[in-house]
Amino acid sequence: MRFDITQVLDAIERHLTTEAALAQAVVDLGQVAWFDALDGGRSVNLLRTGLLVDALSRHLGEDAIMIYPVAGRELLTDADLTSKERMVLGRWAGDGLIEVVATVGDRVPEVAELTGLPVVTRDGYPGLEGRYPWLRGQPDRVLRLIPGDGGARLVGGSPGPAQPGGPGAVLLGRVWRCQRRDCPTFGERRGSTQAVPRMRAGVPVCPRHDEPLINAGPKPPAVTMALIVDGTVRERFVVRAGRPVTVGRSPDDPDGLMIGSHLSGEAAQMISRNHARLDLRDEILLVNDVSTNGTVIRSRKGPFSAADEVHLGGGPPYPLKPWDTVELYDGVVLARADRSLTRSAGGPGSVMGDAPTIAMRPPPKG
Ligand SMILES: [Zn+2]
User: Which of 158-162, 203-207, 222-226, 304-308 has the lowest mean pLDDT?
Assistant: First the structure.
């Protein structure tokens, strides 16, 4: 049986982000990569991240899950990593897909505290409940990773959308920059995406370089959206003020959301290359129909209220209310990711693809 490690690592990579607005859980990558009881294999294995991605997908009932991975330097320098794993980890670190820190310590609960996200953990961070009382009091924010289901399984409550409050909301309402301009975590390449500062005695510092961050002004408003196809969340994306996002089969704008690979049959024919443009202005999300066949808004006052249909065929932009959804074609829907309408109806797929857990084990001796 053959499986392509590169393909599996690429599939895992699509679920990694250090953007606070996109992440759904925070995890210490080392705790996962060193968890040899998951598959009984090598002491360290980066493919175990795929078992975690699959477990979180099943736990949340959603395909497009995004994790915020924190990695200590001791993982990046583990002598038992393969050269391919070391190369991939280096690329993830350089591209800012994982956050590299000198010591992990309490960094995972700290990111969770500031963002309101749940943690994925092996031990629940005993000893830190004093500083982070939710570690004991809120089971929906502490997801325990255990072996099971032929790989990994998560035990814990069902976390709702993150609601950052308190100091985290103020901190994440600003743009922060590292003094090192080429920093993958807070450097200039980050554009408008942003990781979570580390707090040292009340001062925001770069988690990678441990130097104070520069306050670069207020952060433009943003809304996190989900693409749902046939009841399953397929993509998450962020619409920022002043940066409209065109959604379609294959948008002309390179920053648009290309959804062609998620479509089949009639949907692939009826959805235009450029179909709808989402534009956040004065904190109102405007939907512009730019398609050939039109867009339907299902307007709801709340999660359980009946929907009114509004057909957009060109015309003026439609101001989307929080519970409204945008239908590009039957079963192809855009919705706010912080609304529970995005909970999946279908079962999620697997990033491990054809890689069975057995393939991670060392070959039998003799
Ligand atoms: Zn830095």
Answer: 158-162
* DSSP state, residue 78: -
What is the separation of C-alpha 241 from the centre of its chain, rounded to a whole number of angstroms? 20
Q: ∠321-322-323 over CA atoms, to 5°?
A: 95
pTM above 0.90, yes or no: no
Q: How many angstroms does the Cα of residue 206 sit away from the middle of ligand 1?
A: 5
280 Cα–ligand 1 center, Å: 30
In angstroms, rounded to a whole number, what is the distance separating the alpha carbons of residues 223 and 283? 9
Measure 179 CA to ligand 1 centroid, in angstroms.
7
What are the domain boundaries of the chain? 5-157, 166-218, 222-342
- Is CATH 3.40.50.11980 what the domain over 5-157 is classified as, yes or no? yes
CA 305/CA 320 separation, integer angstroms? 16
Level-2 CATH architecture, domain 222-342: Sandwich (2.60)
Q: Which two tokens stand for residue 315?
A: 């015309």
Sign of CA dihedral 32, 35, 39, 43: positive
Q: Is the dihedral of CA 147, 149, 151, 155 positive or negative?
A: negative
Neighbours of ion ligand 1 (CB under 5 A): 178, 183, 186, 206, 208-209
